[in-house]
Amino acid sequence: MRAVETPFEKVTAKTFPKGPDVLAPGHRACQGCGEVLALRLIMKALGTECIAVSATGCMEVCTAPFPQSAWRLPWIHVAFENAAAVASGVECAVETLRRKGRGPDKRIPVIAIAGDGGTADIGIQALSGALERGHEDFIYVCLDNEAYMNTGIQRSSETPFGANTTTSPSGKKSKGQATWKKDMPAIAAAHGVPYVATATPAFHLDLMSKVRRAAAIHGPAYLHVYSSCPTGWRLKPELAVSIGKMAVNSRVFPLYEVLDGRYAVNRRVDKPIPVGDYIKLQGRFRHLKEEDVAFIQARVDQEYERILKLAEAFPAEVEKAS
Amino acid sequence: MAAKRIGLEVSLAVSEAVMLCDADVVAAYPITPQTHIVEHLSELVADGKLDAAYIPVESEQSAMSSCIGSSAAGARTFTATSSQGLALMNEMLYIAPVLRTPVVMAIANRALSAPINIWNDHSDIMSVRDAGWVALFAENGQESLDLTIMSFRIGEDRRVSLPVSVNIDGFTLSHFIEPILVPTREEVAKYLPPFNPLVKLDIAKPVSIGMLGMPESYTEARKATDDALLASKEVVKECFADFAKQFGREYKVVESYRADDAETILVVMGSIAETAMTAVDEMREKGEKVGLVRLRLWRPFPVEEFKAAIKPAKNLAVIDRHMVMGVPDGPVALEVKSFLYADAARPSVSNYVLGLGGRDVTREDFWHITERAKAPDAAARPRYELVGVME
Fold it and tell me: Are both B217 and B309 inside the same structural domain?
């Protein structure tokens, strides 16, 4: 069945899952952490009948210091770079045991969760392998907070241009991060998987519906989730959600889906807010000059237009995000 | 039991053993000389003879990662590798034991690079000897098949719950065709109960596996694993004994050959024991009181059984197939010496390194070693002696 035709239950304000969170409260994330918010919503959308695999990182450390686990479902962490490979093994085991009559006779989604470093840098090989192999009940979520936050804000290939991190510091001869953010959703889509989507907890129903769709689809799904990090971004914790809205509304982080290779922009931004408004709230960009912001603005518009053109050329039939 | 031995390449015999054990998941990446094992497994899965998922992973790092995930989910899991592949798995090799995932791995032992070399020695497994795996060394084809079957039972025993490696000398054993008795599925099923782990990733009974071990819990987690590994020796012996009862082939953790009255004992591991036994026979014919002790079980190190086996010896010639760079002894000699240190009546121990990167090991090498082990200065040499090396 094509991904676009696979039925799934959307999450709306009315159908928002009730009951306790799958990711229990009491974890040790920082105040205002956008990543743990994303994780909580993702797990709430999935429910307890799935198996989660975490890569080493903030979310693993803050949710599972022995003997206190925040996970109300089967969960495993093995190492940093291999969440996709561990999830591959779990998925094949579950499927085989089901076939052989030794496991539950139902589909059990296996979700691998990693940060941007664990996905786009050290974990990209394992991820590529898993996407290419086409695991049936495999969801991969990249919680992108745009740097190695767990180790103290070092740059990754997902760190945006101009951002100050501890290994891309701004200085007399540096504007901070010198490279443009690696386009992971495009890389995932290039594997020809049935489903790729971007999301952010700032649009929480959209995020949760995408998780539901990823779980329903037969074949690998890749979700790239923008997750603000007040600590690493030098952002006021109370702005963790607003900044996500601004990222979308400034076209910095477009919300879109790739279904069976066809594109849908979930939120068209025809009247974007200036990128400068988004940037000025974050201390990591404090050193940037007007011309740097102008450069970023131009590139952001170009990247957004590319997605828009793809959606025009190869449109998928999906509804707009609520 | 099949009454007749059939000619079977040892690699294929290992794959057949995995099939007979009804493994659920195989995740592997090809590397010489392990390839025939995984090729045959792929074939068995493709032909429907083995009902398993074969995961053609993109690296050995992912192979071991997938195996840990699969085993944690309650599936009987197998992989195979060699040399650089084992080295690439390194990080995960240390995690599998502590997560108590009883993966079984065949290692077609091959030299580590550099220089790049595809031939046999023990540098791959010896470089990860502290990881926490049960490690067995096979001497011949029959033993390779039998140990593979026994490994699942050893590792999956709830008292053990640890991964197990079956070490098979690359090419010199893995690629030989030997006469092998192949048991039936029914016989193996009688010996090997279904995999029923204490904890697994189960939606009906959620657990968290692989949590963060802070200074308050890390040591205890490591100790629990070491306790299990040390205690696994008795389970290994039990599994060997039950195997003998059912299949009539008796295995011991430490094997002896003509060692009961030997003044000089050669200590070896793996397939060179067959050459060494021939050399022992030849030397015995000439009146030399020489014998052989072979470590089948390398981890946990069977200290008591080893000491009992070498008791008669005045001279112990420990043969290593790996160098511990920067240390004047090979890994086996280092350990043997440390175990014997407290014994007042310890033999003279000397160390020989040979057969690296596929260099041929001959009967003459063992004659030479036996002579050298008897020399008055044998125990006092400042460094291992290289045998068969170009000067």
Answer: no
CATH of the domain at B210: 3.40.50.970
Taking the CA atoms of A179, A184, A185 and A189 in sequence, report the sign of the dihedral they define.
Answer: positive
Of A102, A119, A108, A6, the residue nearest A59 (C-alpha): A119
Domain span at B37: 6-247
Q: Rounded to the nearest 5°, which phi and psi values hold at B251?
A: -125, 145
- Where do the DSSP E strands lie in chain A? 51-54, 75-77, 110-115, 138-144, 170-171, 174-175, 195-199, 221-226, 256-259, 262-265
Q: Where are the alpha helices (DSSP H) in A9-82?
A: 34-46, 58-63
- How far apart are alpha carbons A75 and B203 in whole angstroms? 10
Which of the listed residues B231, B247, B263 is the one where a domain comes to its end? Answer: B247
Q: Are residues B99 and B56 in the same domain?
A: yes
Q: Considering the domain boundaries, does residue B1 fall inside one? A: no
Domain co-membership, B177 together with B74: yes
For every residue of B108-145, DSSP letters joined together read EE-PPSSS---S--SHHHHTTTTS--EEEE--SHHHHH
The count of structural domains within chain B is 2
**Same domain for B185 and B210?**
yes
Q: Is the dihedral of CA B149, B153, B154, B160 positive or negative?
A: positive
Distance from CA of B317 to the nearest CA of A (A): 41
Quick check: B101 contacting A, CB < 8 Å? no
Asked if the structure places residue B166 within a domain, the reply is yes
CB contact under 8 A, A86 and B68: yes
The helix (H) or strand (E) run that includes residue B106 is strand B104-109
Whether residues A78 and B208 touch (CB distance < 8 A) is answered with: no
Collapsed DSSP state (helix, strand, coil) of residue A227: coil
Q: A3-313 architecture in CATH?
A: 3-Layer(aba) Sandwich (3.40)
Q: In tens digits, what is the pLDDT along chain B, a chain of 391 residues? A: 446 899 999 999 999 999 999 999 999 999 999 999 999 999 999 999 999 999 999 999 999 999 999 999 999 999 999 999 999 999 999 999 999 999 999 999 999 999 999 999 999 999 999 999 999 999 999 999 999 999 999 999 999 999 999 999 999 999 999 999 999 999 999 999 999 999 999 999 999 999 999 999 999 999 999 999 999 999 999 999 999 999 999 999 999 999 999 999 999 999 999 999 999 999 999 999 999 999 999 999 999 999 999 998 999 999 999 999 999 999 999 999 999 999 999 999 999 999 999 999 999 999 999 999 999 999 999 999 999 877 6
Quick check: B51 and A99 CB within 8 A? yes
Judge whether B114 is closer than 8 Å to chain A, CB to CB.
no
Alpha-carbon distance values, A260 to A136, A193, A213, A218 (Å): 14, 7, 13, 11
CA distance B43 to chain A (A): 17
The reply to whether B306 falls in a domain is yes
Quote the CA–CA distance of A140 and A143 in Å, as a whole number. 10
Q: Which residues of A touch B217 (CB under 8 A)?
A: 66-67
Select the residue of A61, A81, A93 nearest B212 (Cβ to Cβ): A61
Q: How far apart are CA A152 and CA B286, in angstroms?
A: 70
ipTM tops 0.90: yes
CA distance B81 to chain A (A): 17
Instruction: Note the residue count of chain A.
Output: 322
